[in-house]
Amino acid sequence: MAILLALSGLFVAYANGANDNFKGVATLYGASIVSYRAALTWGVFTTAAGCLASIFLGARLLKLFSGKGLVLESTLSNPTFLICVALGAAFTVLLATLFGLPVSTTHGLVGALSGAGIASGGLLSFSVLGTLFFIPLLAGPMIATGVAWGLYSVLHAVRVRLGIESSYCLCIGSRREAVVGAPGLYTIRTTGVQVALEEEKYCRTIYSGEVAGFNVQKIMDTLHGFTAGCVSFARGLNDAPKIAALLLFVPVIPIQWAFLLITLVMAIGGLLHSRKIAERMSFQITEMNPGSAFTGNLVTSVLVIIGSLFGYPLSTTHVSCGAIFGIGAATRQARMRTITQILTAWVITLPVSALLSALLWLALR
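The structure corresponding to this sequence follows.
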C-alpha cells in the first residue's frame, strides 16, 4: 500500500507538470520573445528551483494539505483514502490537459479530499473547507484580475508619457539561410534579398526608444524573462508541498526525498505534455505585447509567492489566468469564448475530482 500510495502521489506530480509547467512562461512564447522549446526549458528549470525551495519554505502548505482538520485523522492514516485522493486529482488534471484546458491542481486536490472524505464518512469539516480553502481560491484570481488591470493601465500611461512607441516590423535583409520550419514563419526569397513575414499570432511588438541610455526593448525582454521565471518559481514553491502532503503517511519515503521525486516527475510531465496548454495560454486568451506580458507575470509571481509564504492555498493557474484576464480587459482584446471555456473548466474541476475520488473509494475500500 505504501508503494501504491507513493506511485499515486507521483502521478499527481506528473499531471501537475503536464498542465502547469508552461503557464509561467506562456507570456514569453505568446509575445514571441523566445521559441516554445526555449520557454519550456526555462519554465521547467525555474519550476524545479521553486520545488526545491519549498523543502525549506513550504511547511505551512504542507501542513494545510495534509488534511488535518478537514477530515478525521483516523481517515488520513488510511492509505486507501490517500490513494483515492491522489488518483481523483491526477485523473482530473490529466484529462483537462488532454483537452488543452489550464486547470488548478489545487482545486483537484481540494475536491478529491472532499469527495473521498464524504464517501468514507470522515466527517468533512465544511467550515475549514470554506475558510482555509475556498475563500483564498476564489479571492486569488479576482485580486489578480483587478491588480493586473490597474497596473497595466498605469504602466501603459507612463510609456505613452515617456514617448516610447510600439510597432511591428517587416524585416528585409541579405541573409540567405533557410528559415523554413520555424513556427509560423514564411519566407519570400529573391535574388540576394530575403523578406520574412509572420502569421498574425507570431507578430512581435517592438518598443523603440531609450531610457537612461539603455534600449527599452532589451530592458523589457530581460525583465519579462526574469518575471516569467519568477512565476514558474512561485508555482513550484506553491504546488510541491501540496503534492508532498499526500506522501506524509508513506513511512518508506523521507519527506525530503518525496520533494526531490516530485520535482523530477513534475519536470517530466511538463516536458512531454505542455504543447496544448502552451497554445491555449499563449495565444487564445488575449493578444499580448512585452509590456502586458511583463505586467501579468509580475502580478502573478508576487501574489503566489506571498500566498505560499503565508500558507494560503492560492492556485497559480487561477492567479495567472486572472492576471491575463485583467490585461485583456485593460486592452479590450480579451477573447471571451476562450475565457468562458477556461472558467467552465475551473468550475467543474472540483466536483469532477470529488466524484472520481468518491467512486474510487467505493471501489477500492
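The chain has a mean pLDDT of 81.
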